[in-house]
TrEMBL record, chain B:
<dbReference type="Pfam" id="PF00005">
    <property type="entry name" value="ABC_tran"/>
</dbReference>
<keyword id="KW-0472">Membrane</keyword>
<keyword id="KW-0067">ATP-binding</keyword>
<dbReference type="InterPro" id="IPR017871">
    <property type="entry name" value="ABC_transporter-like_CS"/>
</dbReference>
<dbReference type="InterPro" id="IPR003593">
    <property type="entry name" value="AAA+_ATPase"/>
</dbReference>
<comment type="similarity">
    <text>Belongs to the ABC transporter superfamily.</text>
</comment>
<dbReference type="GO" id="GO:0016887">
    <property type="term" value="F:ATP hydrolysis activity"/>
</dbReference>
<dbReference type="GO" id="GO:0022857">
    <property type="term" value="F:transmembrane transporter activity"/>
</dbReference>
<dbReference type="GO" id="GO:0005886">
    <property type="term" value="C:plasma membrane"/>
</dbReference>
<keyword id="KW-0131">Cell cycle</keyword>
<dbReference type="InterPro" id="IPR015854">
    <property type="entry name" value="ABC_transpr_LolD-like"/>
</dbReference>
<keyword id="KW-0132">Cell division</keyword>
<dbReference type="InterPro" id="IPR005286">
    <property type="entry name" value="Cell_div_FtsE"/>
</dbReference>
<comment type="subunit">
    <text>Homodimer. Forms a membrane-associated complex with FtsX.</text>
</comment>
<keyword id="KW-1003">Cell membrane</keyword>
<feature type="domain" description="ABC transporter">
    <location>
        <begin position="26"/>
        <end position="248"/>
    </location>
</feature>
<comment type="function">
    <text>Part of the ABC transporter FtsEX involved in cellular division.</text>
</comment>
Length: 291, 248
């Protein structure tokens, strides 16, 4: 009978399925973006470090002295020396287009030797920057990158916070709309079958017998919506994710991998959400309109 | 002397047989029902015994249908209590209510048949909703159809039946659970005299098998021919409660 309900009001059923699949897709994309943003934020926090670039003329011993001096501080997590060769290797390992990678090779290496200084403490970084600003080091140090990066880092952090906020707001709105659409679709089905329901109740049908077809109908919306949503995400993963990966390479995140490696978690999430939306909607609709 | 003694003995035996009154199956205690400012029923006190045939007569709006609705718990009394087989009807939860309704047959003026189901399916529906086995349905429905004289109409649809036949289908569905109480709310309202008589005869037949029949009707001419208990309702109150049974 639930299947009959679905087919009888096929136009309404399609609307409910489309709305629910839109909700599922939006929520899934938000969840992926959330995890991506969290991962990027974590990566950025790890990159809240200072890179001290040295002139090619600066002697190795002078760099080692500076490294030793900084390493003796207890408030720094690490002070790591990166040679020119190390810099090239790091460059080649980045998720950037090959044509850009090819600009730097072992034979043509414009990259500087550097010290990578890491800490979790913002104040410590400021102290170290002030220390390196000292006149003593001016002819040895080409650039201290912290100040230039901090603005970018702030912007990225604000962007990720915005993504989280916008994604969750949009998700709640879509979930609310889906609940309402399914609620009304079930309500209309109840209305169109009111005569039959009345007779069912008069002859002593149990609540389960009366309500179950409508719950089945709502769950069908959820199942179909999940299938459509997974199909949309698969298409998105195949065609759109590579483009996003190219554009946002600096985040070092592979959106395609998120989709295809975690598809079973995504499917479970969607099924759970679909069941939640449909059972809530049908429960309130039948409770209100079947007396 | 012997003849007189025999006559006395017969009279005593008759008194013994008919003088025993069974406990009430249905009791209305000070029942009132209001719809907003409208008092549909006002402090009604009445009781029905098992196996009785009771006609409730009155003009439109008198409260007849309200009595019927209260009895099947389609409505809840604004005040007072309705006791059926020792239980307060208003206290039923949904589960108990569905079980209760399986023990009460109801027949309406508009038949309440499902247009897309055949005669057989309409009656079987009342068993299906109670999770009856297919074998039980196949066994009981034809018997009921035979009882109401519609065995050969089992595969017809409601639109192919006359008014009287539709009402008999409705009665058959009401009887499928062998109810103790059958409530007929204006069952002959849409019928011509011939079909009216057929339906009333069927109700009497059902009553003879021991079912309490409560017939609500505005047509006093029907009731006057029955010689059964008659309750007159006017403006939500019982104005007369008379047992016209010659067997009383």
């Amino acid at each position: 009978m639930g299947v009959n309900n679905f087919l009888r009001n096929w136009s309404l059923s399609i609307a409910a399925v489309v709305m629910t699949s839109l909700t599922l897709t939006t929520v899934t994309i938000f969840v992926i973006l959330h995890f991506s943003a969290t991962s990027a934020t974590q990566m950025i926090k790890e990159k809240i470090d200072i890179m001290v670039y040295f002139y090619d003329e600066t002697a190795e011993k002078e760099i080692q002295d500076i490294q030793l001096k900084l390493s003796s501080r207890f408030d720094l997590d690490s002070v790591k020396y990166i040679s020119k060769e190390g810099a090239v290797a790091k460059w080649q390992s980045r998720p950037i287009p090959q044509n850009i990678k090819n600009l730097v090779t072992s034979e043509e290496n414009p990259l500087f030797r550097s010290l990578q200084i890491k800490t979790q403490n913002q104040k410590t970084l400021d102290d170290v920057v002030n220390l390196l600003d000292n006149q003593t080091y001016q002819d040895k140090i080409y650039k201290v990158s912290y100040k230039e990066n901090s603005d970018v880092i702030d912007k990225i952090l604000r962007l990720t916070n915005f993504v989280n906020w916008a994604g969750s707001t949009l998700s709640f709105i879509f979930i609310g709309i889906s609940v309402i659409v399914i609620f009304n679709t079930v309500r209309l089905t109840i209305f169109s079958r009111r005569e039959e329901i009345e007779i069912m109740e008069l002859v002593g049908a149990s609540s389960a017998f009366v309500n179950l077809p409508f719950v089945v109908e709502a769950i069908m919306y959820g199942i179909l919506a999940t299938i459509i949503s997974m199909a949309l995400l698969a298409l998105g993963g195949k065609f759109i994710a590579p483009i996003i990966n190219d554009q946002l390479y600096f985040l070092n995140i592979n959106f395609q991998n998120y989709l295809f490696d975690l598809w079973y978690i995504i499917a479970l999430l969607q099924v759970a959400l679909a069941v939640f939306i449909t059972t809530i909607s049908s429960f309130f609709s039948t409770r209100r309109y079947i007396k | 002397m012997q003849l007189i003694a025999k006559l006395k003995k017969d009279a005593i035996s008759k008194v013994k047989i008919v003088g025993t009154k069974p406990a009430n199956l249905v009791e209305f205690f000070e029942v009132s029902k209001n719809y907003g400012n409208i008092k549909a029923l006002c402090k009604v006190n009445v009781a029905f015994r098992p196996g009785e045939f009771v006609s409730i007569v009155g003009p439109s709006g008198a409260g007849k249908s309200t009595l019927a609705k209260l009895l099947i718990r389609e409505e809840i009394p604004s005040s007072g209590k309705i006791i059926v087989a020792g239980r307060d009807v208003a206290s039923f939860n949904r589960r108990t209510l569905s079980k209760y309704r399986r023990k009460i047959g109801v027949v309406f003026q508009d038949y309440k048949l499902l247009a897309h189901k055949s005669v057989f399916e309409n009656i079987a529906f009342a068993l299906e909703v109670c999770d009856a086995l297919t074998s039980e349905i196949r066994d009981r429905v034809p018997k009921i159809l035979n009882m109401v004289g519609l065995f050969d109409r089992a595969n017809n649809y409601p639109h192919e039946l006359s008014g009287g036949e539709k009402q008999r289908v409705s009665i058959a569905r009401a009887l499928i659970h062998s109810p103790k109480i059958l409530i007929a709310d204006e069952p002959t309202g849409n019928l011509d005299p011939k079909n009216t008589k057929e339906v009333i005869d069927l109700l009497l037949q059902i009553n003879r098998s021991g079912t309490l029949v409560v017939l609500a009707t505005h047509d006093e001419s029907i009731v006057n021919q029955l010689f059964r208990r008659v309750i007159k309702v006017e403006n939500g109150k019982i104005t007369q409660d008379q047992n016209r049974s010659k067997y009383f």
